[in-house]
């Protein structure tokens, strides 16, 4: 059974959450509850989940198989939930047919550098509904924050504009002193270096607010990884999420290889 909560009081749970990846995303939900919800399981374990169809789901505390069933019911029908919990509980999810999903975690190696813009480019904070609706991630960000108004009030995002067109966007999920950065470039303007321009601006804005920029991506997302490395991030670690079926391309390739080759069991 799940019970929605307004606040986490258990200090051991809060301490455990501080060891998780995606700190900006996680603590933005815990501190503000604009981008997600908090639930308590019957075992008193805590679930923190984003408000979107492909959410990050974080679970801290002691888990039972009954808890796993409740969590699976909670996320049923979602497009691609990605769940993080202690590794000792992975078998409980694997027994329900779940699989591994691998990601890279990066941190900024040196302070961000402001990159110069050509005269026909401008970087604007996404604080008007007109600009917001032009953005590639408009629907995703509006869903995450629950409404257009909530994003404009609580969200952090910048748009790289060329004339009246938005060519690239960067967003920060802020919480716990961390800022997890996400970037998207319009399909018509990719492979031109625009992502680095908008990300460099956002990094410097984060540093003005004394928040620590973070970057993460799927291990097979070469474009995102390449952008992060160009901006001075370096890989700290790799971490495992759980997903309801085959996860990233690494898992898919392994499954396909096992299907198509004789493998002793």
Shape: globular
Overall pLDDT metric? 93
Main sheet strand line-up: 7-8-9-10-11-6-12
Return the string of H and E elements: EHHEEEHEHEEHHHEEEHEHEH
| Count of runs of 4 or more consecutive helical residues | 10
Helix content: 25-40%
The overall strand count is 12
CATH class of the largest domain: Alpha Beta
Report Rg: 19 Å
CATH architecture level-2 label of the largest domain: 3-Layer(aba) Sandwich
CATH superfamily of the largest domain: Gcn5-related N-acetyltransferase (GNAT)
Largest sheet: 7 strands, mixed
CATH fold naming of the largest domain: Aminopeptidase
Query: Which structural class should the secondary elements be placed in?
Result: alpha+beta
* Strand-residue proportion: 25-35%
Poorly predicted runs of 5 or more residues? none
Kindly report how far apart the N and C termini lie.
38 Å
How many discrete structural domains?
2
Can you describe this structure?
The protein is an alpha+beta fold and 265 residues long. It folds into two domains: 3-103 and 240-260, Aminopeptidase, CATH 3.40.630; 108-239, Aminopeptidase (3-Layer(aba) Sandwich), CATH 3.40.630. The protein has helices spanning 11-17, 23-32, 65-74, 90-94, 129-132, 138-145, 148-154, 194-208, 222-230, 249-260, and strands at residues 3-5, 36-40, 46-50, 56-60, 82-84, 99-108, 121-125, 156-162, 165-175, 178-185, 212-218, 233-243. The chain has a seven-stranded mixed beta sheet, sandwiched between helices. Strands 1-2-3-4-5 form a five-stranded mixed beta sheet, with helices on one face. The radius of gyration is 19 Å and the shape is globular. The relative contact order is 0.16. The model has no long low-confidence stretch (mean pLDDT 93).
């Amino acid at each position: 059974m799940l019970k929605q909560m307004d606040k986490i009081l258990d200090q051991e749970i809060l301490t455990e959450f501080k060891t998780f990846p995606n700190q900006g995303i996680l603590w933005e939900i815990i501190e503000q509850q604009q981008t997600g919800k908090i639930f308590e399981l019957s075992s008193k374990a805590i679930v923190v989940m984003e408000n979107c169809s492909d959410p990050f789901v974080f679970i801290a505390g002691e888990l039972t198989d009954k808890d796993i069933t409740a969590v699976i019911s909670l996320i049923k029908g979602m497009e691609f939930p990605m769940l993080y919990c202690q590794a000792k509980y992975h078998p409980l999810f694997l027994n329900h047919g779940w699989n591994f999903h691998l990601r890279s975690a990066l941190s900024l190696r040196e302070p961000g550098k402001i990159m110069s813009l050509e005269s026909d480019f401008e970087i604007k904070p996404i604080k008007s509904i007109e600009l917001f609706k032009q953005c590639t991630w408009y629907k995703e960000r509006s869903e995450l924050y629950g409404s257009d108004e909530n994003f404009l009030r609580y969200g952090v995002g910048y748009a790289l504009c060329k004339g009246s067109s938005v060519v690239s966007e960067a967003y920060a999920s802020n919480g716990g002193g961390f800022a997890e950065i996400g970037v998207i470039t319009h399909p018509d303007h990719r492979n031109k270096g625009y992502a680095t321009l908008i990300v460099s601006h956002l990094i410097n804005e984060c540093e003005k607010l004394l928040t620590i920029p973070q970057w993460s991506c799927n291990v097979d997302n070469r474009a995102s990884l390449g952008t992060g490395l160009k901006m001075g991030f370096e890989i700290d670690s790799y971490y495992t999420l759980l997903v309801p079926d085959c996860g990233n391309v690494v898992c898919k390739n392994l499954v396909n290889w096992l299907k198509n080759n004789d493998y002793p069991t």
